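ESCALATION

Customer reports they have been waiting on this structure for their group meeting. Please prioritize. Original submission:
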Amino acid sequence: MDDRAYKIENEERLATTNEHIPGFLIGSILAVGSLAFLGILTETVMTVLFPALMQEFHVDTATVQWVTTIYILVVGAIMPISSYLKRRFTSKSLFVFALATAVAGPIIMYFSTAFWMVLGARVVQGVGAGIATPLMMNIILEQSPKSKVGRLMGIGSLVITVAPAIGPTVGGALTEVMTWRQVLLLTIPILLIISLPLGLKSIRQMVAPVHAEFNLAGFVSIFVALIGLVLGVNQIGSGISHMVAGTNATTALIIGVVALLVGIASLVFFCWSSSRSFSPLLRLGWLRDPISLLHVLPYLLMPMLGIGFGYVITNLAQLGMGQSALISGLLVLPGALVGAFFAPVGGMLYDRFGARLPILVPMFVSVVGLLLMIAFATTMSPFMLAAFYFIFGVGYSLSISNIMTDGIAGIPPQFIPDGTAVFQTSLQVGGAFGMTVFSTIITVAQAGNGAEGTAAYAHATMFGGSCVFLTMLVIELIAIGCLIAAFHLRARRDGETSMDRGIQ
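Update from on-call: job pushed to the front of the queue and completed.
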């Protein structure tokens, strides 16, 4: 974009900065956002409740992990159909249904007498969370004044990032004074007394629903794809860990490879069928634009880091530095909380200056945090770990919501719900991949280095951490490269458009 075109665009942006945010929109964001927040919060709180669940239902660690895994899979499966739900039903009806499942889940879990009932309750909760987050983003994108989209998307990102940051700390504190069943019921009064009345009063319908056929084949294929991809990466990582430890890895590797192939084949089928279906579950034609695709890829890669850090830091602190679970959780909290509250600031910068600088500069700041972690990986103190993560967290939060905002800005309005669904699904899948990849790296480093609590084991854990940080750096540099390419393509396209107008 030349200087004259940039000046005109900047003047137009400044001319709209006084646009008013309607009160009903604020209420809608608060109502749906609180529902999404509590859904994500319970996802991370549950990890603290694992020991109590294992003891009461007599299940092992591998089995109890399904409490989180099945929740992530359901959320990941619901998000791709959020575009269909948005077209077919009113926003208010979707909100009420999502809230009903968010209330029913904890109630079912409270009265659970068997582990399978707990898993069933998590499926119900996952449905609500899978609807709520895309609904919040769609409301923001559809109803926000153009000059305020960035900051409101930043607020939406704050909802998504604060919940997992405080989840382990909140869960740990509550379990000191309450049973795991009582902890889960705490969300119900908030939903019924605050979220429900506010949503019923505030949520508006801007576009009338249309009759759309539910593509069952598309839903099954995307659900199988997500299960296959997540299970495949998980089992391959488990197989590698067994190989390094000298135990039998054949079964895990076979399951992993088969699941991965099935997942890839199902994803290819879903994309193929969507392009040929009269009523596709998710319209993907907009991804043919390389600029859009070059935004989706970073939004898949960056959550690997943002979500994966919660696992990495707590494990390094406990197994590598000998800190307690409480201290380990507190190390994550400052960087995650302060970083999350920078998300609206990043949105304001996006509204003021456009996309390039508000995205790339913070990403390079987060690179500095990773470089410091790599440089001091084997000699870090808990304070240094928290400080370096703080640097990363600020840069990450300033940029992450703007990647999605800018990516969707180039999509035709009728495809915005589809874009939201793709971006939100990418976030979920990226987070799941990150947890698996990083845990595998640390487990491989620990293998053959003595028992937990020994000096050799602690050193191996810290070495594994340095390998994770290096992997994170490579992932973020790839994401930055994608975005630089996207901005270059857009500038060239805008320049060509300006030339065409000049000729005419």
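Sent to customer with the following note: Confidence is low (pLDDT under 50) at residues 1-10, 12-17.
Escalation resolved.
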